[in-house]
Structures are given as structure tokens and as C-alpha cells.
């Protein structure tokens, strides 16, 4: 039963995260106002007036639970996600992927929210973040300009990004450590980089392949934004500027030598000096993910895999995130948010979706589930929850709230952010199966400890 004294929670942005957050709040018995600016104000990527519109692909990723996206689907399914329930209901054949009839899917979700007695779907653009009520911010990668200005004032100039120029991230275990070596330039400080050296022949072959590789097309609004990003050239653009440009930029070899050969100045090692070096910087605390330094790119994903695997040491590289350069508004979550998706600065403000630096449709739903759940719990005076880091949801929100802030970039669900298993398992499929088993066991224990019923709202207390 609803407590009439409870003020509504306001969710701003009716995308995937906002839809899920709204549903979880209403399921908790709390009134909720969902503000969606469409169709009053249109975004440059959306086409309809419905909530939970899929802006590009109609796929939520692989279904198998030993794949990162499939595991996240299943966790959300078990936790009573409305978005995943509707995705299952409106699924279309797509091999191993969960893909949906996008029109029916978002129309049904819009009707589902509109018919709920506790939900008001209000069509307006919110331009300032209200301070006098509990709010969940879910305005996504294309947050309207006016709200972005207000958010920037609130978070501080350095804590907002409007363009995502990210290099690919590689799973550490897939890098050939017999070849790549740890070192910092001129041996200064701690050896913090994994280095993949190239001889002249390897470099030239790589350079030529890079110059000829196929590029993804930027949308019109992204080309506009890209002009403001002159200081951050795509690696293929740098390559096209000349044979040696990369060797004077991110592939500079000076001061880098594999000490396994012995001393750098030993004349016997004269021919072992690298002609160019690709460096990878550690991305997570556990050292499982490595970021290719200076490799922001507009190349098509398939081309990135083909060309970057020509780099010695990365022949079998497993990519958890490909390089991108596109419009993307996101906050520096490690500085601003807890793993419960609550702002440190303001206890009645929560956020989720692409805006907090998760990437992809399913991750946005997951954030919506957690932020909506916690916003409702805070209004009811209950303690906030964070999921175990051994679940995909828990690992994702632990990462975005504790990654190194200086280099923070959005992250999709992936197994590289999981804590290692107690025993090392070389076979990838077997390892991922063990991650899944651990995730389900820990999710069930967490649910029991927090008095949450599976497949129902977090508030359905036994
Ligand atoms: C061009 C493009 C293509 C993409 N393609 C894919 C893809 O194929 N697969 C994938 O997994 N991910 C893709 N993404 C990432 C995608 O945006 C996210 O996965 C997902 O949509 C994020 O969900 P969200 O809820 O955070 O944001 P959104 O789904 O964008 O929802 C945000 C909502 O907030 C509304 N809004 C914004 N500002 C305001 C305001 N001030 N007041 C009220 N309402 C407001 C918007 O109209 C929108 O409905 C793409 C992103 C872009 C920009």
C-alpha cells in the first residue's frame, strides 16, 4: 500500500536506465515522476517519443550466461528487471543474441509505465537538477545542453566529458608476456607499462595496414563535436600524416628496453633496440585490463581487431572494449559516486546509465535497477545496497566508482573487471563458466542477506 505522505521521486530521462529506475521505484510503492524531454525536445539520435528507445542496434548482446552480456541479462532477470522481461517478451530470432522488435518493445514499455498507478510520465526538459527532492539522473550520452551546463556546475568543470575518445582495452591474460615487457621510459619510477616492441619491418607493415583500414562514419552531430577535440587525434589519422609520425608520438621507442636481454648499453644488444613501441597502461586495480596508450580511433571494430592484432605480443588479444571517438556525455564517477550510485556530494541524488560511464543497453538497465532501488530505499529510510563484486552488476559499479579518475573512460560489462578465481583456469570458456557459477551463488546469498526475493522487486520482503 502507498504511503500518501511520501513525496514522489523524480527520474530525469526516459531511456533504458530511466525506465528501469522508474519501474523499481514504483514497485517499491513510491510515487515517481519520469521526465522525458521527447517529443517536446528531440535528441540528435532518437527517432520516437517512446521511452527505452534503442538508438542504434536492436541487440542487447549475447544470451549465453558464460558471456558478459548474457550473465548480466540473467542477473537482471532474476532481480525483476522490467526492461529485460520486455526484451524477452519481444525477442526476435538473432542467433545467440538477445535482440528485440524495437518498436513493439519501446511502445510496450511506454504503455506499461503509463498504466502504473504510481507513475507519471511527464514530457518536459529538465534544465536544472532539483535539490529539494530525491532525484535519479538518467539523461544518457546526449544529455540536453541546458542540463549538462547545470550538471557541470554541480560536479565541477573537470568532472564532465562530452566526447569519448577512448583507446581499446585488452585482457591482460591475452597479452603474450614472453614478448611484451614491463618498463617505464628511462626506467623512471615503477615499471608501470606493458611494452610491445616492433622492429622496422613489423612497424612498416602495421603502419601500412593502419593507413588502409576502414573507418566508421561519424554522425553529423559527432563531426561537430569532433572539431573541439583537435588535441586528440585518432591513431589512423596520425599514421596518415607520415611514416614516422607515430614513432614521434605514442609509439616513441626511446628509453624503452627489454631488460631480459641484459644491459641497454651493452654493445651486444645494439640490434635489440626497438624501432617502435606500443605501450599499454594498467586500467584496473587488479591489473587484468590494459589500455592501449594513444590508440583512440574511428576505425570499424572488425578492422581494429585485425590491425591491432598485428602488433607483436597482441596476436591473440582479447578486447573488452574497442576504441571509439564519439559524442558521449559522462561524469567522472570514481570521483563523484559510490558503488550504490549515490552522489557523495548530495545524498538525495542518484545517477545511472551512460551518464555514469557504463556502456551499452544492458549496463544502462543494470544501473537503472540499482539507482532506482537505492533512491527508493533512501526515501524509506533503509540502508543502501551495492551488489557483490563477484556479480557482473557489482563488478561494473565497483569499477566505475573506484577506477583511477585521471584516465576514467566508460566501461561495458566484461569479465576482465571480475576478481580473479581462487585457482587459475587457462581455458577461457571454462573460466567464464566458473565466473557465472560464482556470480549466481553470490547473488543468491546477497539476496537472502538483504531479504530480497528473486524475480521480484527488492522491496518484496519475505
Ligand atoms: C548514436 C549512438 C548509438 C549507440 N548505439 C548503441 C548500440 O548499438 N548498442 C548499445 O548497447 N549502446 C549504444 N549506444 C549507447 C547507448 O546510448 C546506451 O547503451 C543506452 O542508450 C544508454 O541508456 P541511457 O538510459 O543511459 O541513455 P538514453 O537511452 O539515451 O536515454 C536518455 C534519455 O534522456 C532524455 N533526456 C536527455 N536530456 C534530458 C533532459 N534534460 N530532460 C529530460 N529528458 C532528457 C533523452 O531524450 C533520452 O530519452 C549508442 C549511443 C549513441 C549516442
Q: Give the CATH class of the largest domain.
A: Alpha Beta
Given helix and strand content, the structural type is alpha/beta
Note the overall shape: globular
Number of domains: 2
Catalogue the ligands.
flavin-adenine dinucleotide
Taking the sheet with the most strands, its summary is:
6 strands, antiparallel
Task: List the topology elements.
Elements lengths: L8 E4 L3 H12 L4 E4 L23 E4 L5 H11 L3 H8 L1 E2 L4 E4 L1 H14 L3 E4 L12 E3 L7 H11 L4 E7 L2 E3 L9 E3 L9 E6 L1 H13 L7 H7 L8 H6 L35 E7 L6 E4 L8 H8 L10 E3 L2 E8 L1 H4 L12 E3 L9 H19 L12 H11 L25 H22 L13
Parallel strand pairs: 1-2, 1-7, 2-6, 7-16
Antiparallel strand pairs: 3-5, 4-5, 8-15, 9-13, 9-14, 10-11, 11-12, 12-13
Helix pairs in contact: 1-11, 2-11
In brief:
By secondary structure, the chain is α/β, with parallel strands linked by helices.
Index terms:
462 residues, Elongation Factor Tu (Ef-tu), domain 3, six-stranded antiparallel β-sheet, five-stranded parallel β-sheet, 13 helices, 32% helix, disordered C terminus, binds flavin-adenine dinucleotide
Question: What does this protein structure show overall?
Answer:
The longest helix is centred in the C-terminal third of the chain and has 22 residues, at about 430-450. This protein has 13 helices and 16 strands. By secondary structure, it is of the alpha/beta class. The radius of gyration is 23 Å and the shape is globular. Mean pLDDT is about 90; it is low at about 455-460. α1 (about 15-25) packs parallel to α11 (about 360-380). Helices cover about 30% and strands about 15% of the residues. It has a six-stranded antiparallel beta sheet. Strands 6-2-1-7-16 form a five-stranded parallel beta sheet. The relative contact order is 0.16. α1 (about 15-25) links the parallel β1 and β2 (about 30-35). The protein folds into two domains: about 10-160 and about 330-450, FAD/NAD(P)-binding domain (3-Layer(bba) Sandwich), CATH 3.50.50; about 165-325, Elongation Factor Tu (Ef-tu), domain 3 (Beta Barrel). Bound molecules: flavin-adenine dinucleotide.
